[in-house]
Amino acid sequence: MGTVEVAPEVPGLANTHSERLSAMDTSFLAMEDGRAHMHIGSVSIYDAAPLRGDAGVDVERLVSFTEAQLQKFPRFRQRLEWVPGFAQPVWVDDDRFNLRFHIRHTALPPPGDDRQLKRLAGRILSQEFDRAKPLWENWIVDGLSGDRFALIFKMHHCMADGIAGVAAGNLLAGPDPHYEPPPVADWVPRPAPDGPHLVLGELRHRAGAPIRLLQTARSGPDDAGSSTAGAASTASGVQGLLGNLFQPASPTPLNVDVGPHRRFDWTRLPFAEVRRIGKAAEGTVNDVVLAVATGALRSFLTRQGENVEDLDLRAVVPVSVRRDTERAAPGNRVSEVIAHLPVAEADPWNRLLAVVDMTRGLKRSGQSGAGDLMGQVAELLPTQMLAPLFRRASRSSVANLIVTNVPGPRVPVYLLGARQLETYPVVPILGKQVLGIALMSYDNGLFWGFNADWDALPELHGLVEGVAVGFEELAAAAPEAAPGTPDA
Q1: Can you give the CATH number for the domain in which 146 is found?
Q2: Is residue 234 domain-shared with residue 157, that is, in the same domain?
Q3: CA distances, 454 to each of 109, 119, 429, 449, 450 (Å)
Q4: Hey, is 25 helix, strand or coil?
């Protein structure tokens, strides 16, 4: 699931090229309905001095640099095409590709503060893509106070998951402040197969899908040990996922119909301190993230008049199923688990211990392998049937929000000598989930991005402030890590 599938070698396909979207990739297209925008991306802030031109950031230099780097991620020059009669999307080279359509330049009015940048990011995230063109944009934002500029990057989730999205983002920023790309040959788009050959490729894919499903079901997840143990773990995970489906999460103010407008906010925490706290609880950085988010949600919902003692509050937590060799591959290679957040626990340290215990159970549950298997099952179904199923699933009550943590570079990165100072990731929100929380580790920080519905969550900044307050309380309550405790 999610691997690149190139059009098969059959007579008449010489020099043509297409790549089939997986069922999971296609799901993100189906979920988009004019209100639920399926963007991933980031808001990154840079030191402007090394790139300052006569009138702000040197945009022409950035355009030239981006053009040279696009060879590393060909998906940025591809658009959607559809297999006749199947409603199945494929990627083909865009023979009308124009880089300047995708790189936008704007500026903040004085004073150019972070609040204005957040508002601008929300407006940009409220706009859907033109599906006749490659599904990404990169906005250069001048006028940020403190001699800074920002890049607001967004791409459609059907192009990549969080891990691949980081790889795509790294096309521009890297650890070498002096890096200049070598000269590259002019790009020549490959012609797309004609309709009959697209149909033939789809038929061949469907003929092989049952064999691929059988192989996945027999082997189970990569780390399951024997194939028998893997299959048993996956079967248990399917049962757990279905149990969550038939017993919906508690309704909350976070679970109303999503509108088309977004607000975006952020905060950051010190990575080393987060890791120290995780080690002290014999847990991980992700455990601390879930515990801090749970504490902030507890305070937020209490202010909304909710009785948190009775809430079954759940978070979708994406889990990468990529092998190391697939880290930069486009498409989606991700499963998910459903975390029941201990929102009723008032004590921050006990809350973290409860999260550690819960996530250990999730790792044993087989849910992530089950999600991967269910994605393979989806490949057997006609795309015309999948689209309405995906739309229905996106409005289900299986969880209240999404919390995702993507590992980023732990060293400073640079764009043509300009150091990246901060980076805040974006995760989309679904039909009845008005809040999505995404995190990325970078350099010495853990950066939180909060994507929310503009109308349904006007108090978003209070929730963001609750993360900082809750983390301080947890840090004060945490003992020192036991000697010999492995890094989280």
Answers
A1: 3.30.559.10
A2: no
A3: 22, 10, 12, 15, 12
A4: helix
Q: Are 13 and 197 in contact (CB under 8 A)?
A: yes
Parent domain of 27? 5-169
Last residue within a domain, chosen from 104, 139, 169: 169
C-alpha distance from residue 463 to each of 118, 291, 327, 466 (Å) = 15, 14, 33, 5
Contact predicate 468/343, CB 8 Å: no
Distance CA 315, CA 294 (A): 10
45 in any annotated domain = yes
Domain count, the chain: 2
| pTM of the entire predicted model | 0.89
Same domain, 232 and 165: no
User: What CA–CA distance (Å, rounded) separates 301 from 249?
Assistant: 15
Q: Are 317 and 341 in contact (CB under 8 A)?
A: no
CATH code of the domain containing 379: 3.30.559.30
Does 322 map to a domain?
A: yes
| Residue 424 phi, psi (nearest 5) | -120, 115
* Structure tokens that stand for 456 in this block: 């349904």
DSSP state of 182: P
Residues 445 and 371 in one domain: yes
Question: What one-character-per-residue DSSP string does 101-119 give?
Answer: HHEEEEEPPTT--HHHHHH
148 and 262 share one domain: no
In this structure, are residues 234 and 367 in contact, taking their beta carbons and an 8 Å threshold? Answer: no
Does 452 fall in a domain? yes
Render each residue's pLDDT in the chain as its tens digit; 488 residues: 344 455 444 445 568 999 999 888 999 999 998 999 999 999 999 999 999 988 889 999 999 999 999 998 999 999 999 999 998 999 999 999 999 999 999 999 999 999 999 999 999 999 999 999 999 999 999 999 999 999 999 999 999 887 777 767 667 899 999 998 888 899 999 999 999 999 999 998 888 877 766 765 565 544 444 344 455 455 554 555 555 565 889 999 999 999 999 999 999 999 999 999 999 999 999 999 999 999 999 999 999 999 999 999 999 999 887 776 666 677 777 788 999 999 999 999 999 999 999 999 998 877 666 666 676 777 777 888 787 888 887 788 899 999 999 999 999 999 999 999 999 999 999 889 999 999 999 999 999 999 999 999 999 999 999 999 999 999 999 987 655 554 54
Answer yes or no: is 197 within a domain. no
Shared domain check, 262 and 144: no
Together in a domain, 147 and 260: no
H helices present in 281-382, as ranges: 285-303, 348-365, 367-378
Question: Pick from 120, 147, 169: which residue ends a domain?
Answer: 169
